[in-house]
Amino acid sequence: MNKRPNAKNERLKRRFLEYRKYARQLSEKTLDRELAALERFDVWNGRKDFARFHIEWAMGFRDHLERANTANGTPLGKSSARAIMATLREFTLWLSQQDGFRSRIRASDADYFNLSRRDEAEARASTARPAPGIKQAKRAFKMMPATNPREMRDKALFGLLCLTGIRVAALVSLRLKHVDLEDKSVTQNPREVATKFGKSMTTFFAKDFPEAKPALRAWITYLEDELLFGPDDPLFPATALKASASTGFQADGFDRRPWKSTEPARKIVNAAFVAANLPAFGPHAFRHMLARHTAKTCKSVAELVATSQNLGHTDVLTTLRSYGTIDRDKMRALITGESDGVVLED
């Protein structure tokens, strides 16, 4: 298990990842996961040459994953095992098409990198993802102070998440010019905003958070009038630090640059919910919140489709899956029509 990397295998991995990056257009994050899956298989298999591939390797690896544990000792999740097997399946299929391997590996050999039907169903099962209700988000927002510029920024950030459910990577890369308060919209230009898959989109403010817009307006006014920020300056600038003899460093206004990562935004959101005696939801939870609220209250299919597009989903089914499953009582009420308003509670 501790053998040194096999040079031939490493070259094949590199060529496969180049194919996945440039031909299949996968992101660096996805490529990192695929490399980890290939390395896991290679280590388990004792670094044997891929050229000697046999279907028994695939069968043995599946048995290995069924018994595998994570770093903290818990059983490896079925969805994780499914993702690992999918990478090995794609790799084997690609390998079967390479010179020198066509006579040794058949395309059908890739099919052995599959979970059992039971495990596959478990991996695909929809699970309810933690997300706040509308009332919980409103409570956390209301309790956030805005007595100084940093608090104003943090409250505006929380408010924009309530209004749009924008992805956190896009959120921290927004510039002032991307927000139009009169149009109630955020323009996500992939040339300037870190959107998923480089998609261009316009996101509009949700109707259920009228209290969030004044906080956002107050923050933008402060940036423009007090700090003299321009259209190309960050909407949520990083906190500036200055040296202090007693504490080392302390906050000192804002830098004219965005945060280097999404972590500060996550901490702001977590802290706001905790301060309201609620679970420490993260920024992505707002997307599930808005999707579920629309699924519960929409009056037409068009409204559901509009929400799906507003969240940047390419398929309305993605939005519906965010709603997750419902319990037996709510299911009965919906099917029989005996809801009495219970199903629409948030």
TrEMBL record:
Similarity annotation: Belongs to the 'phage' integrase family.
Occurrences of domain Core-binding (CB) (ranges): 7-96
Gene3D superfamilies: Intergrase catalytic core
UniProt entry tagged with the keyword DNA-binding: yes
GO molecular function, one term: DNA binding
Coiled-coil ranges from the UniProt annotation: none
Keywords per UniProt: DNA integration, DNA recombination, DNA-binding
Lineage, opening ranks: Bacteria, Pseudomonadati, Pseudomonadota, Alphaproteobacteria, Rhodobacterales
Keyword DNA-binding in annotation: yes
Domain Tyr recombinase: start-end pairs: 127-336
GO biological process: DNA integration; DNA recombination
CDD domains in alphabetical order: DNA_BRE_C
Protein name, as recorded: Tyrosine recombinase XerC
